[in-house]
Fold:
Amino acid sequence: MSDHHLHAELQLDWDVGKLHKGGWPTGPDNYFLLTRLSSLPVEVTAEGGPGRVLEIAAAEAVHSCKLNLAGMECFVVEPSTVMLERARGRMREFGARVALIRGVGETLPFADHTFDRVLLDSAIDHLARPDLCVREMVRVLKPAGRLVVTFVNYGSLSTRLSRALYGAARLVGLLARERHLFWDSPVPIEHTFECTVPLLRRLCEPYAELDHAFGVSLGWMVPGWGPLLQRLPLQRALRLMRGLDRLATRRPDLADFVISVWRPRHRGPAQRTGESPSSGELLVAADDVVYPSRARAEADFWTRVDFGGFVELAKADEHQVNQAFTGDPSRTWIQDLIGRGPFQDAACLGCDEAGYERLWIEQGGSRRLDVYDLSPGVIRKVRAGLGRARRRIRFVHADLNFVALPENAYDVIWSSGCLHHIVNLEHLFAQVERALRPGGLFAFRDYVGERRMQFGAERLGAINAPMAEVPPRFRRSDAVVPPRVEELSPFCGVRSNDIVELAAQRFDWVHKGEAGALFPLTLAVDMGALEREKPDLAARLYAADREAPERHGFRPCAVYAVFRKRG
Structure:
């Protein structure tokens, strides 16, 4: 599995209409920029006369339609079927002829040296693997061809000024901390990273040489700038924006939007894309262009989300889950693990608001507990609820995808609901093995079902059949459907179905308890109320879940697993 697969899901059903929900801002700064960008990418790509042009991630393919009418032979590679259908409509509207191909820029279906120009307009920060896409774009360019890459500049003066103003407003209470504004970081989930001029150089320079670049606009979406322009006489506002635009032309590093033109490096045929370079145990490297932005978004997601709501939902069928996990309806998995002690030193990988850290200390789990977590916001929330247990718990802000755990330091390492958010599982499990003392235990309670919780049709059918028997007043939804990817954290379920197998390859089994073959059936129903008012029906739902592995061959989605360090 490559990092490409971690984000490709965001490309396949792309709908640019989502960006226009509620309408674009209508300020003069926004109108000025969008007007300039409606023609500039076409003008720059058309320079040099007719030829064969490839546009990647073209959305509605308006640029390609205009280029075709200017005498160019145009091809489009676009992953979204929704956008391809709209592109057909645009072709009819313009009277243009464009070859439309469904695909992704990371793997282009063309021979080397096919095109005179390649255009990637405002899409490089939406790609799963921008480095592979750049390599592919250069590969299909003719030796004298040109690559045009444009992007919103997250290193711009507007970005820096806006973020400073946001911070000041939040500090004095004028802006809610959870409110996410235009230039805020992390960027919305449809972006995979925040592109800047230095980052684009890093992506392109291994394969191409910069011919020239220029910027467009200064001041776009800076708080107060649009309203100020609206209060000025039209001609004065235009002079201001044009003057700033001239400065942006000369200083693309400061500009709101950047247009860059590249020429292939003459090193022989460009390397074909394929598997990512080997990185040992790391499926994603710390210096990957996409990863840091996704990691910030993951940390931000869990800072904002009320995890306690999920904890409350799960309590309704806790006795059933306890039975499946430990064989005793009154004994939780954490109590079972504590009972496997005594332990002197323990570590917890990831923390949440379920209170397991406090419970661990209060019930004598170990003398001390080190808690490793990615999100400073979550650490603050969990630490605030520890009470006296806080004195024996040490929090370590760490990215578990790259963490270096201390050698031979712990008698037990455990985790609750964290591992299905880890990309570099092999690396993390190697660190766990390194950190455990001889005979030490590694335990986790986690989601191990389908990746990204995208349940198959057969499982959904088996879930919704018993749910149809439940009276509507007990249901939290009419039917169970897979969650929308945009609603999940960036790494939720990213390798969930690999967890148990990878752990079993490195450690020896001690205990396994499984549940949730029809997950998330019991979360979609108010099981507490159902047990009180219709106990027979509740019993049938629980029985359907227990019987699903044998009856349907479904793999349970939740596991409590205990392993021992080998040797």
Observations:
- Confidence is low (pLDDT under 50) at residues 1-8, 268-280.
- The longest strand covers residues 141-152.
- Residues 302-564 form a domain with the Rossmann fold fold (CATH 3.40.50.150).
- The two ends are 30 Å apart (CA to CA).
